[in-house]
């Protein structure tokens, strides 16, 4: 297994280009199944998760080619509406295929994501939404069997689930009649899915609001070229990195409008942030002010940057409180940051971080995508050498992250065993 070796303490300088958004491209790849056709996607990041989704599309029967951040998908040959456990267990976003499959075939067999129970976990929102549209669903040996002709209806989510909103949208575009989704997620990744579907011939209004209205259509177009939006989470990771590690960097290929909550918090911490049309320049301050943060659905502070923000606060001048209201148990990075000397107390979904002067390099272990990013940031800020194991997690959400940091002057290397 690969590992990453970091010798910390070197400030960052230069430019880094931000890639396409993982959380935008995955549902769009799934949506190509809805209407048989040929699709050309650009700005597609080369990630473990995009490769997994490509393999899932091939299992369904599509032809997928990828080269130099361009992906060609031929979904005319899809003939197997099944998403097997071997693929779904490695990536929860595989579950996004459910709405697309039942929209195309009137039938879907999709494995439950690993670790999710039928009732209390958020996957229940997906199930309830499809039932509202008239789908018949059963659980059989860990697989959801969905069938039936869909009819428009009103769907109201208790929580603005991003995944459930995606599935409901994809299922509703060809349903008979009108569908209204209330308390829908408003993330940029939802907006770009709406854009994709509308360009395909769907009739969706209410973009960027919590109420989406879909007029079902009988057929959609069969060819489309589409560019994937920049990854706001990768961008936020590098913004926070500069604030923590020190130096001055410029992010290119970004949409600053997607990062308002993060930028405002960084400014409150004393970091200088200069915004251009598709660039952001960030200059670290000599000291990091403590800034409390609570995650929230967009446009709030993203849960996918909670771990990185915690890494920043490990070196703040006093104490900061970090609360995750989206995923209550998303704190596996606390123990690993503590190995570097961080002073963090965790109670339920509330972490209290008391800043220290110096983090000290140590062996640490990645536990998920964003926790991995927080460890890279903390190790780059620490004195001495650190070794990060199980880095396959980072490859799910960041393309060549070590090379991008190398370009900024960091002493970071990947070692293959």
Descriptive report:
By secondary structure, the chain is of the alpha/beta class. 30% of the residues lie in helices and 26% in strands. The chain has 13 helices and 24 strands. It has a four-stranded mixed β-sheet. Strands 2-15-17-16 form a four-stranded mixed β-sheet. A four-stranded mixed β-sheet has the order 4-5-3-14, with helices on one face. β12 and β13 form a beta hairpin. α4 runs parallel beside α6 (162-172), α8 packs parallel to α12 and α10 runs parallel beside α12. The N and C termini lie close together (6 Å). Mean pLDDT is 95; it is low at 115-121.
How would you summarize the topology of this molecule?
Blueprint: E1 3-7, E2 12-17, H1 22-31, E3 38-42, H2 48-60, E4 63-67, E5 70-74, E6 82-83, H3 85-88, H4 97-105, E7 107-111, H5 123-132, E8 136-140, E9 143-147, E10 154-156, H6 162-172, E11 178-182, H7 188-199, E12 203-205, E13 211-215, E14 223-227, H8 232-245, E15 247-252, H9 260-268, E16 272-275, E17 279-283, E18 293-294, H10 306-313, E19 319-323, H11 333-339, E20 343-347, E21 350-354, E22 363-365, H12 369-381, E23 385-389, H13 401-407, E24 411-415
Parallel strand pairs: 2-15, 3-14, 6-7, 10-11, 18-19, 22-23
Antiparallel strand pairs: 1-23, 1-24, 3-5, 4-5, 7-9, 8-9, 11-13, 12-13, 15-17, 16-17, 19-21, 20-21
Helix pairs in contact: 1-2, 1-7, 4-6, 5-6, 6-7, 8-10, 8-12, 10-12
What brief labels describe this structure?
13 helices; 30% helix; four-stranded mixed β-sheet; 24 strands; 417 residues
